Fold these 2 entries.
Entry 1:
Amino acid sequence: MVTDIMVAFLPFIILLPLIGSIIIGLGGMLFPSFRSQEKLIGAIGTAMVALPFIILVYMTASFEGSAITFKLWSWMRGGDLDISFSYLLDQLSLLMGLIVTGVGSLIHVYSIGYMHGDKGYYKFFAYLNLFIFAMLNLILGDNMVVMFLGWEGVGLCSYLLIGFWYTDMLKAKAAQKAFVANRIGDFALMVAMFLIFTTIHSFSFGEIGAQVEALADYRIWIPLLIFIAATGKSAQIPLFVWLPDAMAGPTPVSALIHAATMVTSGIYLIARVSPLFLAAPEVMLLIGIIACLTALIAALIAIAQNDIKKILAYSTVSQLGFMFMALGVGAFTTAIFHVMTHAFFKACLFLGSGSVIHAMEHVEGVKDPQDIRTMGGLAKHMPSTSKTFWISTLAIAGIPLLSGFFSKDEILASLFFGGYTEPVYWGIWGIALFTAMLTAFYMTRVAYLTFNGMERFPKGARPHESPAVMTAPLWILATLAILGGYLGLPALLHVPHVLNDMWLATEGGIGAEGLISNSVQMVENMHEHHSMEYLLLPLSALIAVGTWFFTRRFYTNNGLGGDKKVQQLFGRLYSVMENKFYIDELYEKTILTPFMLFSKYVVAWVEKNIVDGFVRATYLGVANVGEVFKRLQTGLVQNYLLLVSMGVILVLAYIIFT
Amino acid sequence: MEAGVQTLLFWFFAILGIGGGVGLIFNRNPVYSALCLILNFFSISGLYLSLSAEFLAAIQVLVYAGAIMVLFLFVIMLLNLSEEKGILDITPTRLLSLLLGIALVVELLYVFREFADDSVKGAFQYGKVEPLGQMLMTEYLFPFEMISVILLSALIGAILIARKYSYSED
Amino acid sequence: MDLSSLQPSVLSYLAVSTLMFVLGMIGVLSRKNGIIIFMCIELMLNAVNLSLVTFSKLHDNATGSMMVFFVMCVAAAEAVVGLSIFIALFRNKLDIDINSVNIFKW
């Protein structure tokens, strides 16, 4: 009974955001007067995300534990190929759906205030709703094709929204960069899908989970390709370069797409097909290594940046690295846990930074409203923003009792216990611990330099607090950033881990039910060396609190001068960090420049002589042949009829007499 | 139907019909051509009768000979066409069409030769109105309805095409 | 007189139908007067109708007769539209020689 109701509601979850997008987009395109109806647009846009959220809350509350698949309609069919728009409701997709629509609605509300007065107001909401639609396809899709549609759809929306202010060449280029970097990953994903289909003749996640043995031929390749796809979407080495540039988009976009939801789709995908990864420990180790390098490098870069959004962007890359580390050690549920907590505090941080930028834009004499060096002391002027930003900062830094602490500690513990099986994970654990320390450092730095200390913007200016429509989402997200972690309390407290034990890793076997299961080895290690947790938990707490305390005092004493001391500490490495490890330059030298040169000389010649020659030959040939045969076109009906009857009679003769 | 009557009907109307067809294509004056065609249609109607397809024979006379040919004659007289000249001139096109015609006759008769021994004397229940009407209202209901749409669109199309355009008003 | 040797078979009907069809075809291919060509097309349609009725009788099956019925309806519609086209043509060219209509010539 409940299932029937859920199935009846399911299409609405998917379609409402699409409908909203169409209404707002078409309305804005066709009726210029609609464009200035900001309240109406904002209300429609928000409602079309909030309604699915409410439906999803209801579904989650009445969920009975067994996955529900629902087929909207059959899309294409032929031979073994049977692709339909079918959707899967299970614990994982419900959780992701709640995050996407929940955080999404808050960000829609926030955008009503943030985008106020923008020329493309209606476009913005149309794109945002379209994004939610694509994202829901991605996470609710029951087969890889629907998932891939969503995957491409979020890529498209990301492109549209990064380049939202496309008249600025830099922003348009950032959008292109994001698009191209994502294409590389998408290509890998397509190849992985083809490999899966040729082997088991199905795209469905259930089948993939059930037929891992049948895929043994591509045991390494499929997970590897899926991981490459994830590096594109979720910004890991080597494809992470697009995410910092993606900050060119409006800040709500950075919060929604480039922090809370889209960038975590790679983690979702890997968790969804976790059985494939469990069968390939080599790939898991590779994921772990790459993830920890990503986390470390991004954290190092974040230390040397001064643009508030850039710092948050690198922080996102670093936190995504943490999630991938958890995937790498086989702690899939832990990764999803961190996806959730990260969505709360990172969305809050980005929205807070948006609030700050919003305020700084109205301060006379500030050249770059995103530069933390021209901020400082904003806590006085923007109490709500400051408080929520600090809460989220402490959460991401891993201060005990806040959400980030629980999820990050779980990742670190998983890595540590994975080390009993494969010692390399101990190395990763060490780096991760160090990265956690760096995180606490740079996050405290950005929060402190923004909100505390001396006012470095022109004297007499009074940056104003954002309107309630913007601060309300901040407070909700900050509350979630505090409470979100209590869904997954550490095992040593001997209370149930709500997310893992009661929700995600329910009984029902591996993958077949669409559920995710953690690496058995890692979990066994955890039980065996249970007592180590008494050491690990205080250790990470100590590191977080210590770093936070130290950093705060350090910047209180030194102000902006603190950065100089940090520079001295890191020595020559600092300029490397400041220049983002020269990765963009490296790509330019090794890939772009040779490619451009190749195009300039080789391709230009080919283009001119072979391609154009072929085109010329084609049209000349057609023209000459036509010159001859046009004489058949006498315009006289009887000639045509004569030829037709001749043809008919000849064909008839052929049929009869042979 | 009695065999002798059928034989007589067949030969009479076969010769009359083919004569009408020949008259159609060899007459200079379109009015005579049309009259020959009417003759042909009546003969075909007679042939239907000899096949005991009474209903079709009736509507052959009603629809073709009665309605369509009247329309033709009406148009021919409305246009007041002059007689066509040189209809017996031998041109390459005409020679070729004659050859094609002979080839087609040969081909078709070659195909139809297997019907040489089939008799046309058997029962034919669908010659009557009632079974045909029942078929029309049951199995062929959809085509039947479509035909009405086609007739309607032909009606509208004919009015549109043939009306006098006055370019002054729009 | 013994008529049994003259007894028509299905082939006889089909032969008559074939001859009428070919006469119509030759007319369509040879005459210049548009309306006569049009009448020849009607002749061809009728020839085919005749063979349809013959087959319908042969198999005692309704499909052939039904087809004839529909062909007649379509022919009526076609005659109306075709003749109105000739009227429009005549109004423009004062002639319905189809060789005078060759605007599709290269």
Note: The radius of gyration of chain B is 21 Å.
Entry 2:
Amino acid sequence: MSATMAGTGNLPRPLMRVRNLMKHFPLRRRAIGLGRSSVRAVDGISFDVMKGETLGVVGESGCGKSTMARVLMQLIRQDSGEVVFDGRTVGDRTLPLQAFRRQAQMVFQDSYASLNPRMTIEDSIAFGPIVHGTTPAKALDRSHALLARVGLAPARFAGRYPHELSGGQRQRVNIARALAVEPQLVILDEAVSALDKSVEAQVLNLLEDLKRELALTYLFISHDLNVVRYLCDRVIVMYLGQVVEIGPAAEVFDSPRHPYTKALLRSVPSGDPLRRLDAPPLSGDPPNPIEPPSGCRFHPRCVVAQPVCSRAVPSLTDCGDRHAVACLRWQSGSGYSPASDIGGLPPIRTVEVSHA
Amino acid sequence: MPDANLPLSPPAVMLRDLHVSFTMPGKQINAVNGVDLLLRQGEVVALIGESGSGKSVTLRAIMRLLDERGTCMSGTLSVNGKDVLGMSSRALAAMRGKDVAMVFQEPLLALDPAYTIGNQIAETIRRHERITARDAAARALALFEKVCIPSPQRRLAAYPHELSGGMRQRAMIALALACHPKVLLADEPTTALDATVQIQILLLLRELQRDLGLSVIFVTHDIAAAVEVADRIAVMYAGRIVEEGSTRALISAPRHPYTIALLNSRRHAAEQRGTRLETIGGAPPDLAALPPGCAFAARCSRATDDCRAAQPLAFDVEPDHRVRCIHTGMTAATARI
């Protein structure tokens, strides 16, 4: 039994269900003769966030991670699909936006831009609770308690402005502010990416502690695969607005199924001078989400692609152990011929380093 | 012929006791506080450290890119044997791009948005060499092929904003290599890129370095990226190099407590899910008010009064592995790598 459910004690139940989420951004200029084109940022995404888990989301820039986070928070409205929180559809009469945002909060990457420069940090943290009906005096008390909890002594820090803090301290303030309305779900969008490694480790430890104490659920979006592996119970791998693989972190990292996930994992430098990479696992930049490739969107960069991959669209297929992958190779009856498959990617080639 | 023993060519870059400070209203920021660094010909040295450690300032100092007003530089700084600190602005302009070139972190800011990339490369070549526009354009095309940009002819006519991030960084490397510099300075060239693109650029840099025999200083905060390309690594903290050695020695047997902590703090992947990460408590020191002793002492678990009293000297723990710590004997015994 892994540590997946540690802390909840109960059977896992979904806190948030995302169904067929779609968000296309129309482009103003359109080519003559063509229909109106759009950036297909989020293109049919479905998954569940279990209560008490940390769900990681990884993928290259432009794959729609941040757009998805913003749609989940309803900072932008989806074109279609629905988000169900704790059994109630977000935006419905049963769960209006204000009530939902008490339950779900977000921490952004840019710690400075996400704080009001003209408000002291104690006021920034107290702002949310006041909006939700707490008296200002109580909200300020809670603000001080939270500042202390995230490691910023209120006596020293409460009256400071954002520019008087370091990046790590500001991100602690943002975390405190997110927690001020006592949410169940916190969406962390590249929340530690701008921090130095030593500071990042401190903030990651803080996030782990808070999660345990307050029984929080995290949706952790990051491009840093090492951090995701350390922090997350389950992982979603996104490519061009779609989910290509989802499963327990240990499964996805140790036995990735999708060729994209494999290439992504191999692209991370090992940090070991004896295991340097010899050739990049993936060539080229991610393609344009305006006109994504036909069939499987990864096929132009895929080393095991077959002709069928440019025609058939793979669907997320269960491959056991709560692990699902959207690849024709893993989909029986898809027309992908495993006979010609030479067993996936070529082995990692490493080079010996010469020290003269 | 034992040419390895003949000191024929001067070192690509030599820094001796380099100090750089910035005068701000009411205070002085001591960004670089006595850096000694030797970059041999054909060698790749990675300068690693956290923000504010002085790594980028050191790099910019080599090309004298820091604003002369309010910047105070002292020490010795030479490139290919030529003293840079004493150069006239004319000599500097002749050196920049020709002898030394730099690759910046954010090509979108470093490239001129109003000119096509082909024009910018051709302009650089014609600034340094007597060559026709047509020949310069042909050189630009060859450079784009060298850095593996697909459909190079079309890309040369593109403006910087029309290219993807990885392509822009390749274009920037092509621009840096336009006049065949022997020394390449790379300031966080892959930090803004995705992992899949980062490894492509790292491998491209390594390949170009080997093919062209470049001497490279590679500044990064990402140790793993440094390991991928560097022959030697120098770790900076509060404007000083606290440890320097061959990549293998530094990774497998780090001696300075800061290096050890840095290596431990990035070891997420190996950690068991749920175990706490080792952190370095506290924050880097204020560069306007540096302590008299070791700058890391305030965050170091092994710090003693001796550490706080005086600046520890750098000494060789083994050939080509220097450390600035008076407790290295102890750290070697307890380092777990």
Note: Chain B has one domain: 10-99+181-270+277-334.
